[in-house]
Amino acid sequence: MRESRRRREIQDYYLGISADEITSHLTPASFDLWESVARYQRELQLGARWLEVGGGTGDLAAAALERGYDVLMTDVEVTLLDMAARRHPKLQTRLQHADLFDPDDLGAVAARGPFSIVTAVGAVLNHARDRRALVRGFEHLVALGDTSSLIVVDLMLSEMFPGHPPSVWADFLHVLPGLDMLARLIRSSGLLVLEAHSLYHRYSPTSTFDQEFDERMLRLFFHKSPAAGARVARREAGARPPAPCPGGRPLP
Ligand SMILES: C[S@@+](CC[C@H](N)C(=O)[O-])C[C@H]1O[C@@H](n2cnc3c(N)ncnc32)[C@H](O)[C@@H]1O
Predict the structure, then answer these.
(1) Nearest protein CA to atom 11 of ligand 1, as residue
(2) First-to-last CA distance in the chain?
(3) pTM exceeds 0.85 for this model
(4) Is 186 helix (H, G, I), strand (E, B) or coil?
(5) pLDDT in single tens digits along all 252 residues of the chain
(6) How remote is the C-alpha of 50 from its chain's centroid?
(7) Which of 85, 137, 126 lies closest to 216 in space, CA to CA?
(8) How many domains does the chain contain in total?
(9) Least enclosed by CB within 10 Å: which of 5, 30, 62, 160?
(10) For ligand 1, is residue 14 a contact (CB within 6 Å)?
(11) What is the CATH number of the domain that holds 59?
């Protein structure tokens, strides 16, 4: 019930705005996504298989394809996948319907891997139903990356907005994690942070929202490596049960 409401909200929102508003591809940035990806591909000796999660109208996926990457794009919204196929016919065989937060969809996407580059840009992860789902979505992204892979994630963080709000869109279900949660996600995944950039975009009023809206998010480049896996395994093996509380009472 709640899930179908979330889907409808995503559909109502994304189908009510223009393609240029959906894509993060046009967001001005102080760094070049393509240069960074190409550099890490070279330095980390990664393959060309690129998974673009929540690809929307496909502009970013199509640009990656143009640059020689072997792209698979997913989205939860079938109408957007159809739009991507119409805008970019070369993507037609490279589109898959999948919900990032759904464990059942994970296997179907993984079966088309392994992927050397995994991107979930344009705040896809913020579309989680709640914090638990956001953690699951992040874990899915990490799981979809090959043993050594580049993972690029955009996240709107609560601390990037005045007053640290828990949400910023009144009409649209989403989660704004804080830096503390991001730190926990990075630590538990064992990922190495390669780069972090602040993205900022001011949207003009639209037919659905009559004021300007400031969108702020962090773009993070991570390296998933065999060493990261080993770090997590070592930490888990070393985890001891909590020490007994004095007097048998729980510590405050
Ligand atoms: C702001 S758009 C970003 C599009 C594209 N990644 C880009 O940066 O140009 C966010 C996209 O996330 C998709 N999305 C929302 N929830 C999703 C989910 N659970 N699984 C996969 N995609 C999702 C939306 O349908 C939308 O296409």
Answers:
(1) 54
(2) 38
(3) no
(4) helix
(5) 466 776 777 777 777 777 777 776 656 556 789 999 999 999 999 999 999 999 999 999 999 999 999 999 999 999 999 999 999 999 999 999 999 999 999 999 999 999 999 999 998 999 999 999 999 999 999 999 999 999 999 999 999 888 887 777 666 678 999 999 999 999 999 999 999 998 877 777 776 667 777 778 999 999 999 876 666 667 667 765 444 434 334 333
(6) 14
(7) 126
(8) 1
(9) 30
(10) yes
(11) 3.40.50.150
